[in-house]
Every structure is written in structure tokens, then in C-alpha cells.
Design a protein that fits this description.
Number of domains of chain A: 2
Helix content of chain B: 10-25%
Largest sheet of chain B: 5 strands, mixed
Radius of gyration of chain B: 18 Å
Oligomer: heterodimer
InterPro entries (chain A): CT_A_B (IPR003778), Cyclophilin-like_dom_sf (IPR029000), PxpC (IPR052708)
CATH architecture of the largest domain in chain B: Beta Barrel
CATH superfamily of the largest domain in chain B: Cyclophilin-like
Order of helices and strands of chain A: EEHEEEEEEEEEEHEEEEEEEHE
Protein name (chain A): Putative antagonist of KipI
Pfam families (chain A): CT_A_B
Keywords (chain A): ATP-binding, Hydrolase, Nucleotide-binding
Distance between the termini of chain B: 27 Å
Number of strands of chain B: 16
Shape of chain A: elongated
Strand content of chain B: 25-35%
Strand order of the largest sheet of chain A: 12-19-16-17-14-13-20
Number of strands of chain A: 20
Structural class of chain A: mainly beta
Number of helices of chain B: 4
CATH class of the largest domain in chain B: Mainly Beta
GO molecular function (chain A): ATP binding; hydrolase activity
Chain lengths: ~280, ~220
């Protein structure tokens, strides 16, 4: 018999995430998946799970979970206080949670998204090959609500696991290497200089669809309307207000605003952990 | 859209490129050619091929620059895309914008249905929501603008027009298109329990037929 987890407290937003859905963008299906994929994979490895096993992704205020059987879990990603039935427990390393005890994942002390991996992985039904919640198109399980129960898979046989692992610290300044995007020529030369020289800040309106920024507006050289075209993960799209939006995993697969630049995918994990107000610099790369 | 054209490419980050075509017909032809070559194993591995209105995004390539050099040499000739299955979509033409569209077309409201049903459409690209296809095939004189004020809720199954496109809303969302009718069984558009979740995929041909007394389904 496998275990189940009851979500006792879901915080601001807790979703099921794995490596996401690939190969369906032409149907309008976003990639989705954990925004800080390296954190998800590291948490899974510390449990002997497949690196892409489904985990819970929290947002700023954590969550609390109660398993119906004893389970082993790892809380990683954004640093936060972890308790089991009120007693302090390890962050970033395996924790044993007895049957009926409450694993509390507290408010992030830095960063945005903590990841809760449980031995065996979250075993909700996959949709198009992924268990991820996709907030844009509503695929996968709905965001967790208090009282929801999620099934767990069978834990792997015990393997030799590292007892500690290096977790990157959330960024105090977000440096995003960009290459010119497909529509860089829709912007004035001054706008391109502004993009790579000005400091932007992470907007509080950011979400899993896009990291919005506040800062100087980028001026268009061409005022025409762009016919809809395919959008990549990391695209820096510029809506009419001129403030760059970096497309994260739940971004629409086609769109009609010009893409001035594209952020290298490995930098997006840090973008997922940048709290509102974090300075953002775009650098050539 | 006459004759063959070479294609131009634009870089789209470290793993992707955007291929630009002169019009929707060349885009459809280039997209079909990409799929043919991928099926034949004659294309370097890529993760996503995403057509747009005038572009095709090729994403998840190991070496986008090398791929760009290869694709730039292709000659694309539209015109061979009138083959394959036609999906029939049954429609009740009773949308709230029917009279406005009739005005813009300069016809009686009853004629909107006949004009809309008289064409064969093609899914140029998808987006907005899973299962939402942008259908080309309306002649330019029948293109209508989006509504000035979008509706906060368009019902699932709404058959809609905007610019050069027709579409059917797979689920209830906000939307600014002109609503001319409704598909009684919108659940057909998107069903993840089916092997092919989307009824309408890029390249699919579509005919609209009257909802009353006509069996809906794919025909050869």
C-alpha cells in the first residue's frame, strides 16, 4: 500500500510539478513543470527518486502536509523553516515524517519557491505525459486546496544517498544572460542599449507565466502589429507598456508582442527564486 | 503566394530559430515540409515545431545555427496542401454578433451562415488555449475586426471571427472575437483522454456544416 498526503495548509500557491510537457507546443500546450528545475531534481536525488519525479512547488508561504503513513521527504529550493509536529527539522536534507505527523514548510526566508519531494514521488494521474499543474491552460491537477489529498508512488529501494548537498542561494541580484531575440529589430537602438545597461526590478505581478519587470520602457522602432508567432521559454516579450516580461514555464506558446531578447534557459531557475523588488540586469550572453 | 521562395531565419535564443515566410500559404507549405522531413528522419532532432501566422518556430535544436543554414536553402512552393482529412464541425448560427457581422459583410443575417459554410478552412496555428485553432480560409472582403470591448466570458463552443481567422472556443474564457454561432458539442475540440487530444492541429482542414440533422465527424 502506498501513502497519501493531506494538504493541511496550502499557503499562497502550492502546485504539483515535474519536468513538464514537451512536444505539444503546436497544440497551444505550455511546457509547464518546476520553475526551479535544478532544485526539484536535487530534492528528488536526495531521496533516491527519479530526478524528474513529481514534487510540490510552494510559493512564498510554504505549506503543511500530513502523510497517512511514515514517509521520507526533502524540502529544498527557497530556504525556509521546516518542522515535524512543531519540532525543528532539516531543510535541504531527508526528513522522516511519522504517520499522522505534520510536515510544515514555513515562509521562505529568501527566494520564492520551496520544493517538497517525497520518497516515491507525487502520483497524481499524468496528463499528456506530465503531472504538472499548468496555470495558463488548466492542464494537470488544480492548485492544492486545504484538505486535498494526493497519492504517493512506491519509494525506490534504499540506495546510498548523499547526506548533504549544495543548494544555490536565491539571488539578491538577478543577472540574466540574453541573446538578441527574433524581433530585436522592432526596437530602437536606444532601447537595446537600455535593455542591457539599465537596472530593472522584479515586479510583484510576476507569476509562473512570466517574470514581469519594472524599469525604463523599451521604445519600439516599428509600431506595426506583429502577427502571432511561436514563443520560446525565456523569451523577453515587450508588451505595449514597454516593460520586459520574461516568459517562464506556463507561458503561452504563441503570442503577438515582439520578443526583444531570449534568456538562456539555465538562468531561469534563479529567475524563479527572485522576490519582488530584486534588481535585474540583462547581460549579453 | 505564387512561385517558390527561399526562407529567412531569425535567431530565437540558444536552442531555437524562427523561420519567416512571406504569407500564410508559404507558412503552411513550409510547416508541412518540416513535418514530412521529420517523419522521414531527414531533420536534425528538434523538440517543438510551432507554426504561427507567418512563421514557424523550431525549438529544442542542438545547433540552431547549423539548422538555420540548412533551412535557408529550402525552396518552398505552396499549393500541395489541399490533401488529407477534412474535419466537419456542426454549427448553430445564432451568435450575439451575427447581425453586426452581416452588416459588415453587407448581407442579411441568414446569409452569414451560408457564406461561412461555403469555404474549406485550414488550421494555420494553435494557441490561446489548448485546442484553440486559428483557421484561415475566409477571403479578405469577409475579414472583420475584433470587438472594441472584449467579453469577459465567451462560452465554450462559440464560433468566432477576427481578422483573417475563424475559430471555435474549446472552453469558456474571456475573448474579443465576433461570435456568430455555437458548436453544440465543444468537448470534441480537446479531450486529453483521447490519443490525439486536439481535434484541430496545424494543417487540419475544416468545414463548418449545419448543426441540425447532420452527423458530425471526420470524413475522408
Amino acid at each position: 500500500m502506498t501513502a497519501k498526503l493531506t494538504a493541511v495548509r496550502c499557503g499562497a500557491l502550492t502546485t504539483v510539478q515535474d519536468a513538464g510537457r514537451r512536444g505539444h507546443a503546436h497544440l497551444g500546450v505550455p511546457r509547464s513543470g518546476a520553475l526551479d528545475a535544478p532544485a526539484m531534481r536535487l530534492a528528488n536525488r536526495l531521496l533516491g527518486n527519479h530526478p524528474d519525479a513529481a514534487v510540490l512547488e510552494t510559493t512564498l508561504t510554504g505549506c503543511a502536509l500530513r502523510p497517512d503513513r511514515a514517509v521520507t521527504a526533502v524540502v529544498g529550493g527557497a530556504p525556509c523553516p521546516v518542522t515535524v509536529d512543531g519540532r525543528p527539522a532539516a531543510w535541504g536534507a531527508p526528513v522522516r515524517v511519522p504517520a499522522g505527523a505534520i510536515l510544515d514548510v514555513g515562509t521562505a526566508s529568501a527566494g520564492v519557491r520551496s520544493y517538497v519531494a517525497v520518497a516515491g514521488g507525487i502520483a497524481v494521474e499524468p496528463v499528456l505525459g506530465s503531472r504538472s499543474t499548468d496555470l495558463l491552460s488548466g492542464l494537470g491537477p488544480d492548485p492544492l486546496r486545504d484538505g486535498d489529498v494526493v497519492p504517493l508512488g512506491l519509494p525506490a529501494r534504499p540506495v546510498a544517498l548523499p547526506s548533504a548537498a549544495p543548494w544555490p542561494a536565491p539571488p539578491t541580484e538577478l543577472v540574466l544572460p540574453v541573446r538578441p531575440g527574433p524581433r530585436a529589430d522592432w526596437f530602437s537602438p536606444a532601447a537595446l542599449r537600455t535593455l542591457t545597461s539599465a537596472t530593472y526590478r522584479v515586479s510583484p505581478h510576476s507569476n509562473r507565466i512570466g517574470l514581469r519587470t519594472e524599469g525604463p520602457a523599451l521604445e519600439r522602432a516599428s509600431t506595426g502589429e506583429l502577427p502571432s508567432e511561436g514563443m520560446v521559454l525565456g523569451a523577453v516579450q515587450v508588451p505595449p507598456d514597454g516593460r520586459p516580461v520574461i516568459f517562464l514555464h506556463d507561458h503561452p506558446t504563441t503570442g503577438g508582442y515582439p520578443v526583444v531578447a531570449v534568456v538562456a534557459e539555465p538562468a531561469l531557475a534563479a529567475a524563479a527564486q527572485a522576490v519582488a523588488g530584486t534588481p535585474v540586469r540583462f547581460t549579453p550572453g | 503566394m505564387t512561385g517558390s521562395r527561399t526562407v529567412t531565419t531569425r535567431p530565437a535564443g540558444h536552442r531555437a530559430l524562427l523561420v519567416e515566410l512571406p504569407d500564410a500559404e508559404h507558412t503552411a507549405a513550409f510547416h508541412a515540409e518540416l513535418l514530412r522531413r521529420r517523419a522521414a528522419g531527414a531533420l536534425p532532432p528538434v523538440e517543438e515545431i510551432v507554426p504561427g501566422a507567418r512563421t514557424v518556430l523550431v525549438d529544442g535544436a542542438a545547433d540552431p545555427e547549423a539548422l538555420a543554414r540548412e533551412l535557408s536553402g529550402w525552396k518552398v512552393r505552396p499549393g500541395d496542401e489541399d490533401e488529407g482529412d477534412v474535419v466537419e464541425i456542426a454549427v448553430r448560427y445564432d451568435g450575439p454578433d451575427l447581425a453586426d457581422v452581416a452588416d459588415r459583410w453587407g448581407v442579411a443575417p441568414d446569409d452569414v451562415a451560408a457564406l461561412h459554410m461555403s469555404r474549406t478552412y485550414r488550421v494555420a496555428f494553435c494557441g490561446f488555449a489548448p485546442g484553440f485553432g486559428y483557421l484561415t480560409g475566409l477571403p479578405e472582403e469577409l475579414h472583420v475586426p475584433r470587438r472594441t470591448t472584449p467579453r469577459t466570458r465567451v462560452p465554450a463552443g462559440a464560433v468566432a471571427l477576427a481578422g483573417p481567422y475563424s475559430a471555435v472556443y474549446p472552453r469558456s474564457t474571456p475573448g474579443g472575437w465576433q461570435l456568430i454561432g455555437a458548436m453544440p458539442d465543444p468537448g470534441r475540440l480537446w479531450d486529453t483522454g483521447r490519443e490525439r487530444a486536439a481535434l484541430l492541429t496545424p494543417g487540419t482542414r475544416v468545414r463548418f456544416v449545419p448543426a441540425d440533422g447532420v452527423a458530425a465527424g471526420a470524413t475522408g
